[in-house]
Write a structure and sequence with these properties.
alpha/beta; binds flavin mononucleotide
């Protein structure tokens, strides 16, 4: 279903980062070419080795390697991708995206990417309903990003509420729908 599609998966520092392993595995299984960008925060939750192995590509995190001087071009990465999926998206990363900050590789790629961007928020219910987060999500929607609504249920905080990241198989379905709609309407982005 996703053969030939180039998908950039952004992983940020939320507890749902463990689900990004399943997401990457499913995308690769569907035939997509996958590259993963992690924030420093994400590396505390899931190892780059896991995501590099599943995606069959080195994980991207730094703008450059201080010793070798080699660097990752955020512009090239943004142009490479047919779709950028940020899952999980923390409150922090969404705030920075809404504000146009570019202080890590994931954010710089987001700002320079020409492809559409899907965002799967994941956080505690109170963080999600905070007016700042609500406004940031509205801003991201207004910029044309596709927000994948979080699910309601048991949260890592031990509380019940809305904030669970959409399940990986549901995200893959959204991605497949997105590409099949695009095929039917070639004139639209
Ligand atoms: C155990 C733990 C779980 C966390 N889970 C979340 C979460 O689910 N969502 C969220 O927005 N922030 C969560 N945070 C806070 C983020 O890790 C923190 O805001 C961090 O700065 C995010 O950085 P990033 O957006 O660059 O990845 C958690 C922190 C800890 C210590």
């Amino acid at each position: 279903m996703l053969k030939g599609k180039k998908i950039l998966v952004g992983v940020t520092g939320g507890i749902a980062a463990y689900k990004s392993a399943t997401l990457v595995r499913l995308l690769v299984k569907e035939g997509a070419e996958v590259k993963v960008i992690m924030t420093d925060g994400a590396i505390g939750f899931i190892t780059p080795l896991t995501l590099a192995t599943l995606s069959k590509n080195p994980v991207l995190n730094e703008f450059y390697e201080p010793l070798s001087g080699s660097w990752n071009s955020h512009v090239d990465l943004g142009l490479w991708a047919d779709l950028f999926v940020i899952a999980p998206a923390t409150a922090n990363t969404m705030a920075k995206m809404a504000g146009g900050l570019a202080d890590n590789l994931l954010l710089a790629v987001y700002l320079s990417a020409r492809c559409p961007c899907m965002v799967a928020p994941s956080m505690d219910a109170d963080m999600l309903s905070h007016p700042s987060t609500v406004i940031n999500m509205e801003t991201l929607k207004a910029y044309g990003n596709i927000i994948l609504e979080p699910d309601t249920g048991e949260l890592a905080s031990g509380l019940e509420g809305k904030g669970r990241m959409a399940e990986p198989d549901a995200i893959v379905k959204e991605i497949e729908n997105f590409f099949s709609k695009k095929k039917r309407k070639p004139a639209e982005r």
